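Re: the request from the purification team.
They wanted to know what the chain is likely to look like in 3D before they choose a buffer screen. I agreed to run a prediction and write the result into the notebook, where they can find it.
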Amino acid sequence: MSRVPVTVREARADDALFLLGIWQDALRMADGPEQLCDLETIIEGAQGTPDQRLLIAECDGEPVGAVFIRATTFGPLNLEPTVQIFAPHVTSSFRRRGVGRLLMESAVVFAEERGIGTIVAAAAAGGRDGNRFLARLGLGSHAVMRVAPTAVVRSRLAVLARVLPHHARTNRAPKQSSAVGELLAARRSQRRSHTVA
């Protein structure tokens, strides 16, 4: 496929509906009007600071992709300056035409302008194409972010507290690690028995 003339610009308030369509899975669980309100807030926030950009890729005046970038630190414990790239997305009819490359190039320019030597990108764990694209650009896997509702983690902690004997929950490390090891071994055994059946 031939390359198409694509331009990149900062997002405007009227881009919220387009962003809702392509970022539906990345937004908080809420109804459409609330998500639109969130996007309007995000667009306004990006316009109000030099350390954030919400970029829209356009072809003939039609939005075909978007990416959110911000200059920050690597994390709360690692204060190395980093540019974070969130939700790089291209509409399906414009993939493999250089739009994603142009969005990522804009993020690199953003980092270079600030003298930032590290880029971090986030893509959905199940998004094979997006993850392959980022890997081709040299971005390797650094960490796995796991997500769960607070209530689920609370219930699992309660189960773990019941499973471990009281003496394993004391501050004595050797017994605790032994009890945890036994618990993990039992769970592995259960998983194997479920997969065989």
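For the purification team: The chain is about 45% helix and 20% strand.
Please add any questions underneath this entry.
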